[in-house]
């Protein structure tokens, strides 16, 4: 018998005592609050993101380009990679001090390793856990863009922030045949492996800046 | 139908039985100090974030139900998982045991003509000793989790699920990095101090060149969602993202018990796991991938579904609940026995209370270590209360003790174990016993009925679980009652 046939026979034989069919369990206790981001949700989101020692800035839509430029300048970033579908206005005020590398031109890992920062949008924010979720659509770029550079500036719209994890999961169900990869980010990369001392920044970006805009 | 047991691995053959191994570990004062600090710190953090969630008990029930649904219909969900994965471009392999899994992985790696792979921390690949199999074939398997790196460079074994190098202090880590990094890649900076950020920086630099050039990545998965074909890896450092994103080929070895029925179950599990594990509201990084994503990440994605003794555990009506385990390590951190002995004494990659249950279940109770593991507990019940998927570890330990004793012949002891199993196996009898015990708990101020036994006395440890002020059953009746009144 094939390994598959044998394993399936074993697991079916093992639960011969079960007579109820699959899919009959009581509905999960999870709830979906509808995902309206009121002011309280946004407050909680900023607070919880900041708890992870990420930088949180609230900015009016018109101030996003200047806020991005400020964040990069403060962290001393001189080069930035930009996803192909990012709002072009957002990087318009970066000026000559910052070299912009378009996603399409970042073809090797080594190139990304030499870039200081990345600017992206996001798909969902989760208030209770202070999490941003990327689905790597055109305004967020391929996964490696937000992984290799040391600074990640992420712009999220207020209407993208949901109260809790089940709300986010409900919004993120992969579409059949068109599934996107997802990256859930809660603060900068961290480890507690050395005597349980928290150290920010191991392999992922050591600096995370989240800009919340209306 | 008899289900095959897991083959006992070479590393742990000849492992002394638990009391002997434990006595040796107890002599290590540094380890004991580190462990105490670690377990208490994580325990406090966990308590704080669990208290934030009003519906924690309902979440635990939902988590247990999701896993039970998957486990009791595992054949159906595994077939659904395979279909979803295949529809999304992944290649699915099935492995009856460790040897078969290693052979599958090795064949794929060989076909890529590489001499190295990068690995995300994964307990299942430790269980099947994949690194050893790869090394025997001349392929370097680089562990990339900081603690795993410390363990690997130190030619050592992990001692905790979550913080595998918890038995090492900072100056030991500095020495290991200075001595070993240069042998296998970029050396540690000569002026390396034992400051944790400096040590983490050394690991970042050492591993980065390996990430950037790696052609093959190997991972496990925390969850495998049947109805979407999505695999999930939960981590902190970003080494997981590196291994899951940068290589051209990704191979994930997934125990068959990792399957979740539906996407929505992630809403439950992603609340339970981080809070129970690292004591955070959410871990820094979680990666979810559904087969191959065009132009993003590995363009060749393999999934190896592994049995290796799990179907044997599944066949035990009471024991199968152990397969709900999501490897959060909360039970280790609350365990008075683990805190004193550390992980190595359990002679397996699965240490602590869940290891004391799972190892004899997976491997049978024929070896000295597996016979003694069910006694590596004071049955205080803290592990059950902490477990996010409500595995009744004390109940399972008592049953396993009964098995060990029975195999040794019928004695008054086996009769006592049988009686305990009789109480524990029936909800009504257990309810009555718990109500009685809860009353006793109020009388003793919640203290365990007997103190944690001394090491000479494992086999005398017959304490009933520390009675909570309110048993779960009482809580459930109260909460349910409330719900129905609405
Ligand atoms: S048995 Fe429960 S508490 Fe222990 S590691 Fe598994 S899920 Fe966590």
UniProtKB/TrEMBL annotation, chain A:
Recorded superkingdom? Bacteria
Per the database record, which ranges form the LUD domain? 102-212
Its signal peptide is none
Pfam name, any one: LUD_dom
Q: What is this protein called?
A: Lactate utilization protein C
UniProt source species: Intrasporangium calvum
- Lineage of origin: Bacteria, Bacillati, Actinomycetota, Actinomycetes, Micrococcales
From TrEMBL, chain B:
Task: Give start and end of each 4Fe-4S ferredoxin-type domain.
Answer: 322-391
Query: Is the keyword Magnesium assigned to this protein?
Result: no
Q: Note down the stretches annotated as region Disordered.
A: 437-486
Q: Which residues form a coiled coil?
A: none
In this protein, which residues make up the domain named Lactate utilization protein B C-terminal?
409-479
**Alphabetical list of Pfam families matching this protein:** Fer4_8 (PF13183), LUD_dom (PF02589), LutB_C (PF11870)
Composition bias type Basic and acidic residues, residue spans: 470-486
Q: Where is the composition biased (Low complexity)?
A: 437-446
Which keywords belong to this entry? 4Fe-4S, Electron transport, Iron, Iron-sulfur, Metal-binding, Repeat, Transport
Q: Which domain of life is it from?
A: Bacteria
Q: Transport among the record's keywords?
A: yes
Q: Where is the LUD domain?
A: 78-306
What NCBIfam families does the entry give? Answer: LutB/LldF family L-lactate oxidation iron-sulfur protein
| PANTHER family listed in its UniProt record | LACTATE UTILIZATION PROTEIN B (PTHR47153:SF2)
Tell me what this protein is called: LutB/LldF family L-lactate oxidation iron-sulfur protein
Q: What is the lineage of its organism?
A: Bacteria, Bacillati, Actinomycetota, Actinomycetes, Micrococcales
